[in-house]
Amino acid sequence: MFSLSSISGWGQTLRVVNAASFLKNAPLTAGSIISIFGPNIASGTAAATDPEHLPTTLGGVTVTIGNTPLALFYTSPRQVNALIGTGIGPGSYQLTLTSSTGTFSASITISAQAAPGVFSFTGTGTRDGAILNAITFARGPFTVTTNGQPTYLAIYTTGLNLTTAPTVTMGSTAVNVVFYGNAPCCAGLQQINVQLPATLAGAGRVEVSVTSGGNVSNVVEAVILPSVGQGKFPPAGDNQARARELADVAYIPGTHTALVTDEADDVLRVVDLNAEQVTGVIDLPAGSGPGDMTVAGDGKMAVVAERDKGSVALVDLTMGKVTAEVATGGGPSAVEIYNALAVVANQDVDTVSIVNLGTAMVSATIPVDRGPRGVAIDSANGIAYVVAEDAGTIDVINLANNMVTKTMDLGANSRPKSIVLLPTLGYGLVVEPAAGPGGSVVAVNLSTGAAQSTNYTVSTGGANAIVVSGDMVYFADQTDSSATAAQATVLNQQLTLTTQNQASVGLGPRSLAIDTMDNLLLVTNEGDGTLALVDLTTMKLTGTINAVKAQGEGQGTDDHNDRGMAANMPTVKSVQPQTIQPGQTLAFTVTGTNFQGATGLAFVDPSTLPGKAGSHGNGNNGSNANGPFSSSDPNFTVTNVQVSSDGTQVTASVTLAAATQGQRVVRVLAPNGESSYGPASSNTITIQ
After folding, report:
1. Is 553 exposed, middle or buried (0-12, 13-18, 19+ CB in 10 A)?
2. Domain spanning 15-110: CATH 2.60.40.10
3. Superfamily of 569-687 according to CATH
4. 630/154 Cα distance (integer angstroms)
């Protein structure tokens, strides 16, 4: 589970925030865990050994509010985690931190009604929530039943108002709260137990929020799988992760081709929309977690947000290769192209990165509000609109000087996920699946910044994705398995959405794109692993493509084997030398193909490979077992990695500590993925 002693943070000036949500400039509440950030606020690192009985001095650090000392979880030079005592009443206070490096202070507000924070496994209050199966205590993904009975989840929070029952929404659906109260393990930690309803089966990755005392928490996520046997791509068992999970879809302009990202398999799949099949696979590094992507107007490049790596991949679509990876910051969750730039929203660290596509470098980093989640570009005026999901705002960025020119406030309980622009009408449309039961769609006047609710109510669950074509707006509803078309008009300075048609598209629709060549709405259905083709004129379903199965694969597609079919996969042709002894340091050379940008080598014991007894995963459970990291022999140290300009050779210095004799498979780690873990004479070295 997440650790209260190591919740991550950032920042160069002293600030005090809810330790789960990190919401800036927000009131705090008594009985909650807080994080204090600042430069050089302690001389060392220390953690409390008993989270139920906390000290008031830890690592030479003390923290007080007024004259009341706070109990401490964790201290470090840049972050201190503390507990606000329940005896501190509402009001304005001075918080003082004293350590061997000095005395620091900040003004804070304690409120009886403050937004609760939901913890996440990233330690940033974003992405995968700190949510466990309350029956098995396992992390997600989840099915709506466990051992034939309804599944109950435990959600971990701090700052929850325990005087009234909270409301929990998952995918805009209000779920039944069966328990809320203090968690048994740790002071300041609260637990909410909810029952998953059958209607969420197969919804896929959903937004999760908690409303307490009229205040909405930060937004985290959970993946809800189909039930066993449900749909075209069911899991092998209750709560059993799949190796393939569809995320985003993008259309390649001027073609009959689309791309889909797979966040579990770490690939792009190339889909022929006429042949209605996956015709190619482009590998990304294992563990990258690709989500949002965008394609350049000339159709030659795709930019993919690698959400779990904190980077974006630049993919040459003419070659089918990753040409570069660019580090942007934690949790890149949205990306759009403007001229020769990519605008990337980094959800974990509250920044927007401007990536120069020509140089493959970040040219600017722009601070924005908490939890940037979606981006829309006004190309005619060089303006980016970035929705901050947890702050409930839109930051407006002038791309000529990379400055935030204004911030539009959508309301304290607004939780915007994505935004699209209707430039001819002068409005933006924002979907908010986590704003409460049923979610909401908000219209924003781009000139004034005024926000208004719309009349969009056709979905049973609430819109989670949105795309536009002219004045036509298309929505996806994860829990209703539908896509809806509506026409946008403005009358008396009010934007109105008139529903035209609705189509049943598949289980768990997650992302939308417009195919202008074929006049189609493209819909990724995460739940059943399909890409739906919907006629834009009639909103009739015209085709369904199995988007988790590549051309030439057999019937079994719930594994990582399609990565090995990718033409851009690095291949090893020889290694030199072929033997090594403990204590020896070698000048090591690997020859092969697709090594451009290689970052390292892994030496893998064949006994730990998928399918072997005692191996770390079987490649069929969504655990990214295709990656080398869990089984790489730690006795090997690799330094000074160098790659030839044509990507055919990697040299490195390799040192072996004490190790058992036998073979090790040499794997090259590169932006185009990893070379095969299958042992062969060409890719093994022997420990003598």
Report:
1. middle
2. yes
3. Immunoglobulins (2.60.40.10)
4. 28
